[in-house]
Design brief:
Two copies of one chain form a homodimer. The first copy, chain A, has a three-stranded antiparallel β-sheet with strand order 1-3-2. Chain A has a single domain, classed as Arc Repressor Mutant, subunit A (Orthogonal Bundle). Chain A has helices spanning about 5, 10-20, 25-35, 45-60, 80-105; strands at about 25, 60-70, 70-80. In chain A, helix 2 crosses helix 5. Chain A starts with a helix and ends in a 5-residue tail after the last helix. By secondary structure, chain A is of the alpha+beta class. Chain A has five helices and three strands; from the N terminus they run ααβααββα. The interface of A and B includes residues 34, 37, 38, 95 and 96 of A. The first copy, chain A, binds a DNA duplex through helix 1, helix 4 and strand 3.
Chain lengths: ~110, ~110
DNA sequence: GTCTAATGCCTAAGACAATTATGTATTAGG
DNA sequence: CCTAATACATAATTGTCTTAGGCATTAGAC
């Protein structure tokens, strides 16, 4: 697990990007996917994830559909067209940030 | 300038690393060096820098010497042996974080 | 058959690092 | 003379996240 401080500011970008690549997903699924992609290093907490999803929805970046699985309800999220634009922006921004940090730290990126 | 949220958690690492590479430095000098290394993208604010330097000093990671330049006083910071260990840790941690993020975002790092 | 871990959603209180806003003072340059 | 750059510093506020709750269903172990 990474020092959680480093994750700050990256959560929205991660969520958006995973949704872009995978399409329709529900909250829990997103946490699992990120866990997998990050090799257990990024463990999204629910207290951070759900507020973020709700915020992105309120801003019109995501739309939702609820689906019943047995007696359980799943809430699926999909990117809106606006959301798709935002992903590009955010990913570009974070990629640029990563490159800048690599320069400053003079770290080689294999 | 980057979205400032992304910087969170990286400030200590940046300061430590710059001090390791350049040796004895004073606060203002650090801001200028980081600005240069980051191609104007990372502009350390004083409200963040000085508290960080003081904190690292209080933890025994840095030692200080004051020097008079004309009527002005400069406070020079140098890494202690403990500080040198910390740099390695922090840089390794951040490098690992960067790699993880690159995987999750599937960004190519030229 | 019962108990635990995993699945699945959610909100609220608090921590923490950084931004923004100040304050003070010196020095170089137009 | 006045402004921008140099140089230090602290306080109030902001924002994102962690921690800590709460609720309910389902699969699997024993």
């Amino acid at each position: 697990m990474h020092s959680p401080e480093l994750l700050k500011g990256t959560l929205q970008t991660i969520v958006l990007k995973v949704l872009k690549d995978h399409g329709r997903m529900y909250g829990y699924e997103i946490t699992q996917r990120v866990k997998e992609l990050s090799d257990e290093r990024i463990l999204l907490t629910e207290g951070a994830l759900y507020p973020t999803l709700h915020k992105l929805e309120a801003e019109g970046m995501l739309k939702t559909e609820s689906e019943s699985i047995g007696k359980r309800v799943r809430k699926y999220y999909t990117l809106t067209p606006q959301g798709k634009s935002l992903v590009k922006e955010r990913v570009a921004e974070l990629a640029d940030f990563i490159k800048t940090m690599s320069n400053v730290l003079q770290v080689k990126l294999a």
